[in-house]
Write a structure and sequence with these properties.
The protein is α/β, with parallel strands linked by helices and 397 residues long. 41% of the residues lie in helices and 20% in strands. It binds adenosine-5'-triphosphate and magnesium ion. Adenosine-5'-triphosphate binds next to helix 6, strand 11 and helix 13.
Amino acid sequence: MYTTLMIRMAGEISIKGKNRSVFEKALMENMRLAVKPIGGVKIVRTGGRIEALLNGADLDEVATALSKVPGIRSLSPVMEAELDMDRIKDAALKVVEDALTKRQTPITFKVDGRRANKRFPLTSPEIAREVGGHVLRHTDGLTVDVHKPELTLQVEVRESKAYLLCDVIPGPGGLPVGSSGKVMLLLSGGIDSPVAGWMAMKRGAKLECIHFHSFPFTSERAQEKVNDLAKILAEHGGRIVLHNVHFTEIQKAIRQHVPEEYSITIMRRFMMRIADRLAHQRKAMALVTGESLGQVASQTLESMYTINNVTNMPILRPLVAMDKVDIMDIAHKIGTYETSILPYEDCCTIFLPKNPKTRPKLWEAQEIEKKLDIEALIEEALEKTEKLIMYSEGAAR
Ligand code: ATP
Ligand code: MG
C-alpha cells in the first residue's frame, strides 16, 4: 500500500549553508548502504527532499533500517493516489487509520493540503477541508485542532499523483556518519563503550574500534561478544573496522612488575598508547571511550589525568556526565544492552586488583613503568593485532 518513505533531515543539516550539499550527499550514501541488504530500494532527491522508493521492498524492514541512520530526524510512509478527489479521500482514510493503530485515541488532528500542481481544480485549503471532512466522518476518536495537532495528515498534489502521509517514525537525528572524520573507539564488552561509540557516530564520526583481549585468559565467547557489539554498531553507522589487540603479554608483565593497586592505571596507560598508535596509522583524529566521571576507580579525575598523559590525541568521552541508568536506556534503545550483559569475562575483570588506587599519581605511574620495556611490549601487541571488518547482520559484503 505504501510506495515511498519521505525522509526529514535533522535540522542541523539544513542550516549548514554552503556545506549543506556535502552533508546531504553523505546522508544519502549512508542511507543507500543501510538499505542495500534489503534490495530494490532507491534513495532519490526530489524537489529538495530525500525519498526512499520502496520498489516492492517491505516497508517495516526499510523503515527500521533507515530509522537508525544518523542525520535522519524522522520518516513517514507515503501512499500515492490518482489525481481524483474520491481516490485521494480513500487513501487519506487508509493512511490515517494506519497511523491510529499505533496511537491512543482521542487524538487531535488536522489536514495540511498542498497543491504543487496548479492545474488541479481545488486549492490547498479546499483540499484540506474536503479530505478532513471525509476523514472525520469515517473515523472515531479524532477532533480537529489546526494550531497544535497531535496528528497531521499531509496531502500533496503533485504533477501526476497525490502523495499522502501521516505517520511519523523518529530517527536518531544528529549528523551523517563520516561528515566529522574518523575516530578510534576503545570497545570493551561492557555496557558503556558501545553507547559512547554510537554517540560519536551520531555526531558524524566514522568509527573504528579497538578491543584488547587476553586470550587464552579471555575466551572465544568473549571475543564473539565484542564482534557482535561491533555488528550492532554497524547497523547504525555502516561497516566497522575492528582491531583486536593481543594484550596478554602486557598483562602478564604488569602482574609481574606492577604493584597491584596500580595495575589498572598502568594497564589503561598501555591501552591508550596502543590506541594512539593505531589511530595515527588509520588516520583517526580522536580516541573515544565509555568513561563516565566517578563511575569506578579508573574514572576519577586523578585517574583520567594520569591515564590521559600518555597521548596528545583528543579523547572524546561522550558519557562523561551521564548517569548509569541513562546510559543503560540508550543501550536498550540502540540494541546493545542484551549483548553487553552476557557474562563473559573481560581482560580487565580477570586481572582486577582487590584495591585499585582511586587517586593514582602521574609521577608514581611513571616511576613504576621504568621496570617495563614499554616500547617492546607495545610493538609485540601491535604485531599480533588482528583486523576484522564487521557488517550489520544480513548486510551484503
Ligand atoms: P564499559 O562498559 O565500556 O566496559 P566500564 O564502565 O566497564 O566501561 P572500565 O572498565 O573502567 O569502565 O573501562 C573504561 C573504558 O575503557 C571503556 O568504556 C572502554 O572505552 C575502555 N576499555 C576498557 N576495557 C577495554 C578493552 N578490553 N578493550 C578496549 N577498550 C576497553
Ligand atoms: Mg568494562
